[in-house]
Write a structure and sequence with these properties.
- By secondary structure, the chain is mostly beta strands.
- It has one domain.
- It contains no helices and seven strands.
- It has strands at residues 2-10, 16-23, 26-29, 32-39, 42-49, 53-60, 65-69.
- A seven-stranded antiparallel sheet has the order 3-2-1-7-6-5-4, with no helix packed on it.
- The radius of gyration is 12 Å and the shape is globular.
- The mean pLDDT is 90.
């Protein structure tokens, strides 16, 4: 996983809504948010960006950090 910068909205209900992220010096606006789940690594959120590319973002609340996970061929670099 690679550490990334994310702009996100944290709602009172606990829901996290990523708005955009920066990966390898490129800014990606989030066009839709999909499935989300929790595990030991943190809160995983699938997001879509223009071009229908899907990324998996992981928020580690204990560290206050975001990570980008590259699951197989889910995303094209």
């Amino acid at each position: 996983m690679e550490e990334i910068d994310v702009v996100a909205r944290f709602e009172r209900s606990g829901r996290i809504s990523p708005q955009s992220f920066t990966w390898r010096q490129v800014d990606y606006p989030v066009t839709s948010v999909g499935r989300a789940w929790q595990d030991d690594a943190g809160q995983h959120i699938l997001v879509m960006v223009p071009g229908d590319r899907v990324f998996e973002l992981v928020f580690a609340p204990s560290q206050g950090r975001w990570w980008l996970r590259q699951p197989g061929n889910m995303l094209a670099a």
